[in-house]
Design goal:
5 helices, 0% strand, mainly alpha, 164 residues
Length: 164
């Protein structure tokens, strides 16, 4: 059983995960318009993962026979000044999500809700990977710049990314 506070925050997390999916789709569309199909593909896969994260929260709440509340989403940014700006925004967004997951974990620990702690451990580990992934790509883009042959090769590398 989730407390009213933890239930509310987990329902909010569903909204944030769904927003993340939309945000990454917007980034994908921007990359596609810039003729960067590999980066566009990367963000499509990322959006699918965020939807899966939302469904994990949905299933966890529902599995406890508690009420899932689906909330409206804010419109994500659709315009970016550069590929570097896209990945800077993605990295900062993942840092925000990490803070949200840590908040949920803090509540679960404080309330001694061990099933929630166990559930959230996966997300804690996932956020370490998500932040590292976005930062690694951001650092590569900073090294090679937003144009040129090396960016083309990096775009091809991004096309090979699969869901994890």
């Amino acid at each position: 059983m989730l407390s009213e506070n933890l239930l509310r925050e987990m329902n909010d997390q569903i909204k944030y995960e769904m927003f993340s999916a939309n945000y990454y789709l917007a980034m994908s569309a921007w990359c596609q318009e810039q003729n960067l199909p590999g980066f566009a593909s990367f963000f499509k896969v990322q959006a699918q993962e965020e939807n899966m994260h939302a469904m994990k929260f949905f299933s966890f709440i529902d599995g406890l026979a508690q009420r899932v509340i689906i909330q409206g989403l804010d419109e994500p940014a659709n315009e970016f000044e550069s590929l570097k700006a896209v990945f800077q925004a993605a990295y900062e967004h993942e840092q925000f999500v990490t803070k949200r997951i840590h908040l949920l974990m803090s509540i679960a620990v404080e309330e001694k809700n061990y099933p929630a702690v166990s559930f959230l451990n996966w997300f804690v580990d996932e956020q370490v990977e998500e932040e590292a992934s976005m930062l690694t790509i951001l650092e590569k883009i900073k090294m090679v710049g937003d144009k040129g042959h090396v960016l083309y090769m990096l775009d091809k590398e991004m096309a090979a990314r699969g869901a994890h």
